[in-house]
Design a protein that fits this description.
heterodimer, A: alpha/beta, six-stranded mixed beta sheet, 29 helices, 36 strands, B: mainly alpha
């Protein structure tokens, strides 16, 4: 692959306790049993020519280029499909093989355009490399025969996908793209159409192009293509990259490792890193392609201030901006007391950036009023898992799913929200693992090519805990508890209480069927399968946490895993699929108001003493304010200033009017972000942030994997985010300074036991580490709770089902639940500024055909969705994926205002909002809602930027 | 914070701990509020109880009273 080559050993690695030894061209090599001759040779340092083989895919044996001779074996077998056997003596270069390979290449080249010098893959083409490797010097057949490339024969280029082009004329029909779509991505969108000479790669039916097909734009086919047939448009435009920087994706909690391929500081493409522990060479449409927002024209790179939120923004120097923040915050504290300001950290920022913000709050603001956006997503995970297991972390690494026999997927839609992990899960499901889906919607995984859930539990939104109790009832009543595990690993008294509780008849599937809305026979069958089907692994998302009983539900899942002994080894566990890239890290870094880094409560004197000593300031022993407390106090007038790092609470937090009223009530709102987001409309100071392509630091993904984020270009703003924060702290009188991000990590490691063994130097050396990394686990911890729980013994908790106070009635008869889709990310600030917008021009309301018919709604018509909190207008999409009585939408577009209608109800333990249950009515509408009209008007007042000295036009609103 | 919101939050916490024996349940609610509620929310709860504690579940009220004692 040209100048930046990822090593490709031809066929996938095999795992086996048994090894075999072979001799390749005189070199002895030992490999795990099952390894191909092609890979064994590669491991001996001998590269056999190949075209249809790549180590991301199973061997196919079609190109006939990797032929070898083996002593005692007749003919010339393909080395990719021949397993290495003990004692084999293999010859990869003989005159006979050379002749054969040259003949094969001659045939390939006779049907391939000879435009190498002007081809986008010039210098990065395996066909070109192989022609060279086999010494092809002539094509005796000439180029005039029947072919696929001349003007009369070539099929047109399919440029429908915004990110890559398909040029059939250059295709050698090696099927690598088709197999990548099947094996790596698991979408099975591509196929070979026709036979023999007429064989063509196709993205579906003849009517389909790549854009209209089932293709999900993961890029696996582009990665697999050995020629220029499938190639990134950016490579076509700019040419081959000349250098590479390894870094980490800034989208979801999978945290894929990428190679940024560059020309100077221009990104030419992002290629998934085969050595990346989270993704092992795979990617999705967001990480692979949707990075253009970093250089989007709307990006704000100059600090700005204004007196009132209705004034136009005034670009200023960094010094002025920082001085303004410090002066205003100090004035608020002088007038309203030390508790009147606070900050919010962002899961989109690095560990180091987050750490300095929480330190600024605790040391410079001198209070504990710091919270993070995990408040609105996975805070119940933290509470629930800490209570039951002793630590808030997910239990497994992603690779663990390869050993799962039963996957219990609850309130998560990984093919959309965690696509790269979904591909790993789908691979295991295609191998025969069973799947149980607990979700009101018929998500893709319920039935998708080659996968069908054994059981789908389409529960009524809000009844998660009832479902868990019903499953637990069956497990206890039918004697399916792993008694040995429970006796050895869990607290006796708490188990006995739990067992008695779930055994009560009121918790049986039959008794709860009406509440849940699901046939009790399905619940019983699902419980039996999870308890007896081998390794049972629970994966879950925000459909678990974003409920009034979010924390109870997390504990209920932990109970189920403990009761069935599904913890402490590969293939099992309780696994949160985190929303944003650094949710885990932001929580680890002490972003919650009640705890310091490493989840140590502020009331613990020893922990406080450690930080007080290091930071040279006293730390408050009382918990600070959570985001909802800050907003409520702002409306009360006691909370007057906030520093918001990389979060858009005016769009992403529930009950928008409440959020914006709170922001409007404050004297100083400081927003640090890439764009003038919705929250910035209510801000007084805007501090331009840096994109992941400019950051130096670390992200920690959902499997606790700490990965390096490396800058590929200089900060467009001229200052790192952590330096900005340090300067604010200094301007407020607290001396906070670091030489580098590595220096910040050194402090984190010094003060946080689970990070004790982490340093940039070690991460650069070893790639990634999964915390805890300390004396007890010097190389990190892929699977937790192996010999015992972090808290000692596991604690079962009683999980009484309590219905939410948000009720349907005749005025609001439907339940709205919200989520996200594959092409978009969270509030859309990043993805909507890329070509990903083409997949999702607007948020839509999914509604069941009967509910639509009852209301006279036709597909695509505008509808009003009204709750007790407000109303929005958006187009309807009629789909049987929805159960009757439930509607669904996303919150990616600011002007949709989805959170105008969500409520203030929240999880009892963590105040995580109940986004997943809002009672609504849906009616036909031909006009925007009042809120949408008001929001449009804000563009003329709150989003204006004063014309700069060069006379450039004001920047418009984010959308 | 609106009193009705505070009362709802307190009752929600109490509802989780309610299945436990009373002393443990009270301790559970008190411990939770002490660990996670910032002081002004606890003061507001105390004020509300002093004013009659309308709307609080018996367990929430008991926990609130205990919280006041130990404050």
């Amino acid at each position: 692959m040209g100048m930046i080559e990822q090593p490709d050993r031809g066929t996938p690695a095999r795992e086996s306790a048994e090894t075999v030894s072979v001799t390749v061209d005189g070199h002895k090599v030992s490999v795990p049993k099952g390894t191909s001759v092609l890979r064994a040779a590669s491991e001996a340092g001998i590269q056999i020519p190949k075209l249809c083989a790549t180590d991301m895919l199973e061997a196919f044996g079609s190109c006939r280029l990797c032929l070898v001779e083996i002593d005692g074996v007749k003919g010339t077998p393909a080395s990719c499909t021949t397993p290495a056997a003990e004692g084999m003596v293999i010859h990869t270069q003989t005159d006979r093989l050379s002749r054969l390979r040259r003949g094969v290449m001659e045939l390939y080249i006779s049907d391939h355009p000879l435009d190498c010098l002007t081809c986008a893959a010039n210098g990065d083409c395996e066909l070109q490399d192989m022609a060279g490797a086999v010494g092809l010097r002539e094509v005796r057949y000439g180029m005039a025969g029947e072919n696929h490339f001349d003007a009369g024969s070539a099929k047109p280029i399919d440029g429908s996908n915004p990110y890559f082009a398909f040029e059939p004329a250059k295709c050698i029909v090696c099927s690598r793209c088709v197999r990548a779509c099947d094996e790596v991505q698991g979408t099975l969108a591509l196929t070979v159409q026709g036979r023999g000479f007429a064989s063509m790669i196709s993205a579906g039916t003849t009517a389909d192009d790549f854009f209209s097909s089932e293709c999900v734009s993961c890029g696996a086919c582009v990665q697999a293509c050995p020629t220029a047939t499938l190639i990134e448009k950016t490579v076509h435009e700019h040419g081959t990259p000349e250098r590479m920087v390894k870094t980490t994706c800034a989208y979801c909690g999978v945290g894929c490792s990428f190679e940024a391929h560059l020309q100077g500081d221009r990104v030419v493409r992002m290629v998934p890193d085969r050595e990346g522990g989270a993704n092992e060479g795979h990617s999705c449409v967001k990480g692979r392609f949707a990075w253009g927002y970093a250089t989007h024209k709307d990006r704000v790179t100059t600090p700005m201030v204004r007196e009132r939120t209705t004034d136009p923004w005034r670009p200023v120097s960094w010094d002025e901006a920082i001085e303004t923040v410090a002066r205003r915050f100090q004035a608020i504290q002088a007038e309203h007391g030390g508790q009147a300001i606070g900050g919010i950290t962002s899961s989109r920022c690095t560990n180091e950036e987050v750490y300095v913000v929480q330190k600024m709050v605790r040391a410079a603001f001198a209070n504990n009023n710091v919270d993070t956006c995990a408040r609105v997503c996975h805070s119940p995970t933290g509470y629930g898992l800490k209570t039951t297991f002793g630590t808030s972390a997910g239990t497994q690494n992603f690779k663990s799913v390869e050993k799962a026999d039963v996957v219990l997927l609850i309130g998560a839609n990984p093919t959309d929200a965690h696509p790269v992990f979904a591909s790993r899960m789908k691979r295991r499901l295609r191998q025969g693992a069973k799947l149980i889906v607990v979700d009101p919607r018929r998500i893709d995984l319920v039935r998708t090519p080659h996968i069908e859930a054994a059981h789908h539990i389409p529960l009524r939104p809000g009844t998660n805990v009832a479902v868990m109790n019903a499953l637990a009832h069956v497990i206890v009543a039918e004697g399916l508890v792993d008694e040995a595990f429970v006796a050895a690993r869990c607290e006796d008294r708490d188990f006995a209480r739990w067992r008695d509780f779930v055994a009560e008849t009121r918790n049986s599937p039959e008794a709860l069927a009406e509440t849940i809305g699901v046939d009790p026979a399905i619940l019983r069958a699902a419980a039996r399968l999870y308890a007896t089907g081998g390794n049972g692994a629970i994966y879950y998302g925000l459909g678990v946490t974003e409920h009034s009983q979010g924390s109870t539900m997390v504990m209920a899942m932990a109970n189920l895993a403990m009761a069935t002994g599904n913890l402490g080894r590969e293939g099992v566990g309780v696994n949160p699929l985190r929303g944003q890239n650094n949710v885990q890290g932001a929580c680890d870094m002490g972003s919650f108001p009640h705890e310091l880094s490493g989840y140590r409560h502020v009331s613990d004197a020893a922990t406080r003493a450690l930080f007080e000593d290091a930071w040279g300031v006293p730390i408050g022993a009382e918990p600070g304010m959570r985001i909802p407390n800050m907003l409520a106090a702002a409306i009360d007038g006691t909370f007057r200033g906030i520093f918001i790092q990389g979060e858009d609470i005016a769009q992403s937090d529930p009950n928008t009017r409440h959020v914006t009223a709170a922001l409007e009530a404050m004297d100083c709102v400081v927003v640090q972000d890439l764009f003038l987001n919705e929250t910035a409309a209510y801000a007084h100071v805007f501090l331009p942030g840096t994109s992941f392509l400019e950051k130096d630091g670390t992200f920690t993904n959902a499997e606790r994997r700490i990965n390096r984020v490396r800058p590929v270009m200089a900060e467009a703003t001229g200052m790192s985010e952590w330096e900005t924060v340090c300067r604010i702290a200094r301007a407020m009188g607290y001396d906070m300074a670091y030489d580098s991000a590595a220096d910040i990590m050194a402090e984190i490691a010094r003060l946080t036991p689970t990070f004790a063994g982490v340093s940039f130097a070690r991460l650069d050396r070893e790639g990634s580490l999964q915390w805890p990394v300390n004396d007890k686990a010097p190389n990190g911890t892929p699977v937790m709770h192996v010999d015992g729980f972090v808290r000692g013994k596991g604690r079962f908790m009683i999980t009484e089902y309590v219905a939410t106070e948000e009720r349907t009635n005749r005025y609001y008869p439907l339940i709205l639940t919200t989520g996200r889709i594959l092409s978009q990310y969270n509030v859309g600030q990043q993805t909507l500024k890329t070509e990903n917008r083409r997949w999702h021009e607007t948020d839509v309301l999914d509604i069941h055909p009967f509910d639509a018919e009852e209301r006279g709604i036709a597909d695509g018509q505008m509808v009003s969705v009204a709750s007790r909190k407000g109303a929005i207008t958006l187009p309807a999409r009629i789909t049987e994926r929805m159960p009757q009585g439930v509607v669904y939408t996303t919150f990616h577009h600011a002007l949709s205002g989805t959170n105008v209608i969500t409520t203030e109800y929240s999880d009892w333990a963590t105040e995580c909002p109940e986004y997943k249950v809002t009672a609504v009515q849906v009616t036909l509408s031909n006009q925007p809602s009042d809120w949408q009209v008001d929001r449009e008007a804000l563009g003329q007042t709150h989003f204006q930027v004063a014309r700069d000295a060069a006379g450039r036009e004001p920047v418009e609103a984010a959308e | 914070m609106k009193t009705e919101d505070l009362v709802r939050k307190a009752n929600q916490i109490a509802a989780f701990f309610a299945p436990y024996p009373e002393a443990e349940a009270v301790e559970g609610v008190v411990g939770h509020m002490r660990s996670f509620w910032e002081p002004r929310m606890r003061r507001q709860l105390a004020d509300h109880i002093a004013a009659g504690g309308a709307g609080l579940s018996p367990l929430a009220r008991k926990a609130g009273e205990k919280l006041m004692e130990s404050a």
